[in-house]
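Encode chain A's predicted structure.
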Amino acid sequence: MNLKIRDNLLIQGMRILNNAGALKLKHHKDIDARKSRGILVVVTTALGDAIFCTPLFDALRKALPDTKIGLLVHHSFQDLFSDDPNVDVVIPYYGKFKKVLSTFRRLKAGGFDIALVANMNDPDVLPLLYWSGIRTMIRRPWKSTIYPYLISNPEMMGSGDPPDHAIPLNLQMAEIIGLKPEAGRTYIAVKEGSKAGIGNLLHDLGISGDELLIGFHPGASLRSKMWPPESYAELGRKILADCPRARIILTGSNKESPLCLEIREAIGAGALSVAGKLPLKELAALMQRLSLFVSGDTGPFHIANALGIRTVTIFGPSDYKTNGPIWDLDIHRVISNKPDCWYDNCARWCKKPVCTKDISVDAVYNECRSLIDAGSC
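Encoded structure for chain A:
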């Protein structure tokens, strides 16, 4: 069945039930989180969105040490959070209407009665949560949905540019259910086994341990966020010419492997590619070995940021004020170019991202050199 037909049937069906008064939900003012059987954090979109929720996990665990904390997250990212000490159960989301029955059963068995919905996909996620038994659904302030009648805080939804960074907005959901979270920062739990595996990989690649490792991640979920490959190649050559001990390690997904190989070949000796070879857990372990990580606004940047790795990040059509670093600004450099044509959500629809292409290699190189200790070259 065509997905649009499914979408429309679901939307119309939920609307009919709502108009008939058949949908019963709690208002946020009636919530007592300390009596909850379980709280589910929902973030089914991008990797960065999920990492932005880690301070929320920590706040929930500190306030409710005996309450089950769950996470509904895209299946591609579930392994990265499976070792999180603040999360009891990770439930994979496979995409609109995919494996919906198995997802429903896991949600139902989880016994959650509160959902904190940070980022999610319309039109399927909120009905899925509702029919699994959750009757209190808090939407992250300033986010919207086609189902405002399924939200316990509909008066907090907005439009246009969000008023704050995503992390404090996520923490506001804990405040809405009566908790008092402290300002937090993102984190990633990396197990010793992953660290050992990366040590073996680097050894097999001929890296002894004395090199200055610099990561390049040229890919992104949206092409408009990608700095040109020829710019990465020129940047790599400049760094290697200036720092003989440096090695450039290109990372990416299996789909991004040809792009990384193209850049590696253009840089020449001193560049390596591990694209398509590392699951997210091991990518995080690799990042702990890096002295610097260069990328666009993409999920691996948020991993590096959470691990305290020095970063130089290229922001074109996306807004660093809502997605960029907000702590340790002495080790994070942002290069942003927002032209007059910028508009909300243009990263998704832009066909000619001049904002990214116009960022010069020299501008990025200068920021890299400001973070690379001259004595380590």
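Residues 3-176 form a domain with the Rossmann fold fold (CATH 3.40.50.2000).
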